[in-house]
Amino acid sequence: MKNKFRVIFSVFFIIAGVNHFIMPWFYEPLIPEVFLLIQEINYFSGFLEILFGAGLFFQKTRYASAIGIIALLICFIPAHIYFIQMGSCVSEGLCVHPSIAWIRLLLIHPLLIYGAWKCRKN
After folding, report:
1. Percent of the chain having pLDDT more than 90?
2. Most exposed residue of 1, 22, 35, 68, measured as fewest CB within 10 angstroms of its CB?
3. Where are the domains of the chain?
4. Whether the Cβ atoms of residue 24 and residue 37 lie closer than 8 Å to each other
5. CA 11 from centroid of its chain's CA atoms
6. What's 73's DSSP letter?
7. DSSP H helices in the chain
8. Is residue 122 predicted with pLDDT exceeding 70?
9. If you average pLDDT over residues 6-30, what whole number do you get?
């Protein structure tokens, strides 16, 4: 069961990372304007999601990749807060009910962090 979860979790992050390159227009408006180099941040975070997701497949890199995913998810918290502050809607982009944005921040995000933590062991 652990291996199946780790494979699903790995593939999830690899796909999410690839999406940063395929659909940058979706992710870039979610990055707070206070940050410089928004396009670069988007591509770098996508690269890291792919790298860490793939790293979960290998015993030698599993722990570091899991910790990397946790760090990345923590770095994403300002984007979640920014999205809520924008009214949970990006013009010509993602729009959800505010309760969904809060659930994403307060429930789904911690569950992803927990999932990464569980994947760290061999």
Report:
1. 84
2. 1
3. 2-119
4. no
5. 12
6. H
7. 2-22, 24-27, 38-55, 59-75, 77-85, 98-103, 109-119
8. no
9. 95
Query: 76-80: long-range contacts at Cβ-Cβ below 8 A with a sequence spacing of 24 or more?
Result: 76/45, 76/109, 77/105, 77/109, 78/32, 79/30, 79/31, 79/32, 80/104, 80/105, 80/109
- Beta-carbon contacts of residue 74 (< 8 Å; ≥ 6 apart): 113
| Nearest of 66, 78, 81 to residue 115 by alpha carbon | 66
Are residues 67 and 75 in contact, defined by beta-carbon separation less than 8 angstroms? no
Q: Which residues pair with 89 in a beta bridge?
A: 95
Residue with tokens 């920014």: 82
pLDDT at 58 over 70: yes
Phi, psi of 96 (to 5 degrees): -135, 165
Q: What distance in Å separates the CA atoms of residue 86 and residue 102, rounded to the nearest whole number?
A: 12
Confidence of residue 23 (pLDDT cuts 50, 70, 90): very high
